[in-house]
Amino acid sequence: MKKGHVIAIIVALIGLAGAIIPIMITQCSAHSTHTVIAKPIEDRLSLNFRNWYPYPKEDIQAAVNGNIVTLSGKADSAGYVTEQLSQNLRGHTVILEISNAEASSFYNNQMFKITVNNNDRVIIPLNVNVPIEREYIHSEYKILEFVLPNDFDGKLGFVFYQADLKGLQITATYKSTNP
């Protein structure tokens, strides 16, 4: 086989692989070093925002469309939470994709902290190097990944401190940690 034919076949195979295996490029951290990771997206499932609620209700408004929530409002301390997720999600990896954070204002760039269980234990995402005040995620993060603990009781929440939310959008998916 001629060298030109081999190159043509390789180029065709690369193109075919790109059409068959969708790949998403994600930015893990805009706050510290920039890391790009390619991940297949077909292994993710939607984490629906049904049965979630904002608190206090007079401060935060939530517009839900399946696994996407858009949050608006101004509050000193507020959150968006559910207590009704399945405990079968224990050990699963949750992926939050954050959009439009730059339109909102956050005290000290503290976007929100993630809490689980009735004791509101703080979860630090796997790709967050240094959380602000050891709890809050910097507002420049666009992708957050964390594993729900083995004692997960169904409660998951996002807590905001002195935030002015202007269309902050969160898309939630999950995948099994085990292949």
Largest sheet: 11 strands, antiparallel
Low-confidence stretches: 6-40
Number of strands: 13
Q: Structural class, from secondary structure content?
A: mainly beta
Q: In sequence order, what are the helices and strands, one letter per element?
A: HEEEEEEEEEEEEE
Count of separate DSSP helical elements: 1
CATH architecture: Sandwich
Helix content: 10-25%
Question: What is the CATH topology?
Answer: Jelly Rolls
| Morphology | globular
Mean pLDDT: 83
Domains (count): 1
**Strand fraction band?**
over 45%
What's the arrangement of secondary structure elements?
Elements: H1 3-20, E1 23-27, E2 36-40, E3 45-46, E4 53-55, E5 60-65, E6 68-82, E7 93-99, E8 105-106, E9 110-116, E10 121-123, E11 137-138, E12 143-147, E13 156-175
Structure, briefly:
The protein is mostly beta strands. 10% of the residues lie in helices and 46% in strands.
Describe the structure.
It is a single chain. The chain has 179 residues and is mainly beta. The protein has a single domain (40-175), classed as Jelly Rolls (Sandwich). It contains 1 helix and 13 strands; from the N terminus they run αβββββββββββββ. The chain has one helix at residues 3-20; strands spanning 23-27, 36-40, 45-46, 53-55, 60-65, 68-82, 93-99, 105-106, 110-116, 121-123, 137-138, 143-147, 156-175. The strands form 2 sheets. Strands 3, 4, 5, 6, 7, 8, 9, 10, 11, 12 and 13 form an 11-stranded antiparallel sheet that branches. A two-stranded antiparallel ribbon has the order 1-2. Mean pLDDT is 83; it is low at 6-40.
